[in-house]
Design a protein that fits this description.
2 copies of one chain form a homodimer. Chain A has about 200 residues and is mainly alpha-helical. Chain A has 2 domains: about 1-85, Winged helix-like DNA-binding domain superfamily/Winged helix DNA-binding domain (Arc Repressor Mutant, subunit A), CATH 1.10.10; about 95-175. The first copy, chain A, is built from 8 helices and 3 strands. Chain A has helices at about 1-15, 20-30, 40-50, 75-85, 95-110, 115-135, 145-170, 170-175; strands spanning about 15, 55, 70-75. In chain A, strands 1-3-2 form a 3-stranded antiparallel sheet. In chain A, α2 (about 20-30) packs across α3 (about 40-50). The two termini of chain A are about 50 Å apart. Chain B binds a DNA duplex (28 and 28 nucleotides) through α2 and α3.
DNA sequence: GGTGCCATGTAACGCGTTACATGATTAT
DNA sequence: ATAATCATGTAACGCGTTACATGGCACC
């Protein structure tokens, strides 16, 4: 949802060709180092926006060289953009793939949890190093916005590292708690007395 | 990529019907509150895994009631799972939709940056409150893993809030830096002397 | 005139979502 | 009987990616 709306915003500044959209996005988002946008996504997204009537192809009544299409935002597109600005970004938390991996390792015994943590931490450290180096070596005239974006990435990685430490410290406790396997119910509406199938965990 | 591999892991424990996969995933990932998996994704993912030969439908030579398919992991599937375990989760940082939104607001003047920050912060605080409340009220027998997952979410939101403060504090500085608009080059190979189109930023 | 590279796409796929369809079983 | 609810899917779409195709212009 983000790229789509960003493109609407860029077209709101002025009409653009696909490649101009790409250039402008990279300029705004930091390009290469931070948020690389692939050309293909620009063109497919523009096509979808056009289908939905949020942008139109500019009709250049002169002799435009064919094979180039300049897009313009429509009123519907501007409305959509306003809605985007008014709506907070949904909090995406979770969806943490590493957590899943760790849980599965514990549940299946197919991998060593400590090793997973080791590998993940190494990867995080490497990325942290890359980003901090990048940040220090930044052209002093680099846009402040990109610096802030880098800072955010760094802060997130640091949070992840701290969380890894928490996990590692309490891994043995986690390991002792078996994952409850819910029973497979037979088909059909649940019986009246099925409510307490899952037994209360008894006090130790 | 995460759900797909998690399903492989669950099938590695034992063969399961689609709904059992769903149940087991929720049990492992925390369900509802943290990572809700939609039934449709289970079935479509299982179908794709089957196409790729990573799982097979169990052949129950008895009289199985048709309309139910139990899946089993194949050796290829186990290999894939091992590869997953050995590969660190790619650092996803960036892709921050809010950053984009803010930059676009600055570039287009279609929205007030302070208001965006206000809205976003309100949303983050609300979610933070929900999570901390949830964490405190947790059934004391709740899996430690889920508690840790909640903690991670909380830590990420706190990092986001701190970052918002940074942004807000330096917003005026950011505002003063106009976004550079790259020139649209004409088609074709770049000329020899085009290298320095982008003028060196002069010292102030 | 070929080579390289930029500009401009299309096709096909993977993951994930929403919406819809249909059986099975039990409570009322 | 029918309503409710669980169980089991299919269809269609949106976003994003990778791979491929093509046309133009500059340089040698």
């Amino acid at each position: 949802m983000s790229v789509r709306n960003a493109i609407l915003g860029l077209l709101c500044q002025r009409n653009r060709y696909g490649y101009e959209v790409l250039q402008a996005f990279q300029a705004v988002a930091g390009g290469r180092e931070t948020w690389e946008l692939k050309p293909a996504q620009v063109y497919t997204t523009l096509a979808r926006l056009k289908e939905n009537g949020l942008v139109v192809e500019e009709i250049s009544d002169g002799e435009t060289d064919p094979g180039k299409r300049r897009y313009a935002i429509t009123p519907a597109g501007k409305a959509e953009l306003q809605r985007w600005f008014e709506t907070p970004v949904p909090v995406e938390h979770q969806r943490d793939e590493f957590f899943l991996k760790l849980m599965l390792a514990l549940a299946t015994g197919q991998a060593d949890p400590r090793r997973l943590i080791y590998l993940q931490r190494a990867s995080l450290f490497q990325e942290l190093h890359r980003l901090t180096t990048l940040r220090m070596e930044l052209d002093p005239y680099t846009s402040l916005a990109h610096i802030l974006l880098l800072d955010q990435a760094i802060m997130h990685i640091e949070a992840d590292l701290r969380w890894l430490e928490m996990i590692e410290a309490r891994l043995d406790e986690v390991r002792k708690q078996p994952i409850p396997e819910p029973e497979l119910r037979p088909r059909g509406r649940p019986g009246k007395h099925e409510k307490n199938i899952i037994p209360m965990k008894e006090e130790p």
